Backbone:
């Protein structure tokens, strides 16, 4: 990782427009930590849970919004790439892709040991590690989307994103041998992952071996990054104008309508990352970003933004910190049966009530992560991969 001691100002981008992007990323990271670390997952408010299969909740918007923000950031880096040689640009892309992927993989392997039935520490075997995941998806989608926007014209980039969405729709049916190719155990994403990795390397949180960040479902997720790039490029060229706000709002509304129509034949499903899910989340992101630009860059109402800027200036680091911190709390124990995570919830938060206590625990944990980001920001340390 590279640690920057001062914030870079790219090209002719104004601080207020940076603020809108930082706030968008920061809001995403805040919500991501809250939904990932409830005090007790069994008593979590329903909007803070992912849809069980088909359908959509506010929580389902978090991850695609982060991918959208990744694409948005690429649009501000492209002008710098024009001053570099092709080999330099490719090195930057491949290096960042590899580092983010490895960080994600090691994050799931951490702390590299586990307890056996007797409570003794034993090595966590490589054969049981999860290969794909959140950071891995970010890495893959960033790498492919970056190569596309670097080598292709903007119009071609959009066409490719559309092709990816329709190709994924077709592939889910062609590559599945099940009666219901969109079911949890019959989809092509699972079939490919099982063939490539085996059950032990997959996520088991669904009750069966199935990874919601599987290899094949990266294909439509790339479109989320490309959409973020297209929107970011448009904002960079046009500025914070009413024209930009109008286009973003109209595009958002059109995408929401298209998602609604497609949902009848290709249901919105975050865990399969269906193409209708992509249209829905990109549409919502366009509307949210338009609202933020209006409030921050047009109305200059910025007194509230610093909290989210802190999270948005070191997003990957803070996310990684939150995951490693939660893993340690689960791993360490207050006694032979109780993890520090469970003990902290039971002792300090559960007395407030099951659902309220679970939410307060998640909120408190997010604030601890924010404090780490605040310390970094005050010291002007911005960690980039």
Residues:
């Amino acid at each position: 990782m590279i640690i920057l001691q001062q914030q870079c100002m790219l090209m002719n981008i104004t601080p207020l427009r940076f603020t809108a992007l930082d706030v968008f990323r920061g809001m995403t990271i805040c919500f991501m930590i809250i939904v990932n670390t409830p005090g007790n997952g069994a008593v979590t408010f329903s909007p803070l849970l992912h849809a069980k299969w088909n359908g959509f909740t506010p929580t389902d918007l978090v991850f695609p919004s982060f991918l959208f923000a990744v694409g948005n950031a690429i649009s501000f880096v492209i002008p710098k790439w024009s001053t570099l040689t092709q080999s330099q640009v490719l090195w930057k892309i491949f290096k960042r892709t590899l580092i983010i992927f490895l960080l994600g993989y090691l994050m799931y392997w951490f702390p590299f040991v586990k307890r056996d039935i007797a409570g003794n520490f034993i090595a966590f075997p490589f054969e049981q590690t999860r290969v794909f995941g959140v950071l891995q998806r970010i890495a893959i989608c960033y790498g492919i989307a970056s190569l596309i926007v670097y080598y292709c014209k903007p119009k071609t980039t959009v066409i490719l994103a559309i092709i990816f969405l329709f190709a994924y729709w077709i592939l889910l049916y062609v590559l599945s041998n099940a009666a219901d190719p969109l079911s949890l155990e019959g989809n092509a994403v699972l079939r490919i992952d099982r063939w490539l990795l085996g059950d032990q390397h997959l996520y088991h949180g669904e009750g069966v071996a199935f990874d919601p960040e599987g290899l094949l479902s990266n294909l439509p997720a790339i479109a989320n990054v490309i959409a973020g790039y297209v929107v970011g490029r448009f904002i960079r060229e046009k500025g914070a104008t009413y024209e930009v706000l109008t286009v973003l709002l109209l595009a958002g509304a059109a995408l929401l309508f298209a998602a609604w129509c497609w949902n009848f034949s290709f249901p919105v499903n975050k865990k399969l990352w269906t193409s209708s899910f992509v249209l829905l989340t990109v549409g919502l992101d366009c509307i949210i970003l338009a609202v933020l630009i209006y409030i921050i860059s047009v109305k200059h109402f910025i007194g509230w933004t610093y909290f989210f800027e802190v999270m948005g200036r070191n997003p990957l680091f803070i996310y990684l910190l939150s995951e490693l911190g939660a893993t340690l709390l689960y791993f360490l124990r207050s006694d032979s049966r109780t993890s520090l995570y469970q003990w902290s919830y039971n002792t300090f938060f559960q007395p407030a009530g099951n659902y309220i206590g679970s939410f307060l625990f998640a909120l408190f944990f997010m604030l601890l992560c924010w404090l780490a980001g605040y310390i970094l920001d005050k010291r002007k340390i911005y960690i980039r991969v």
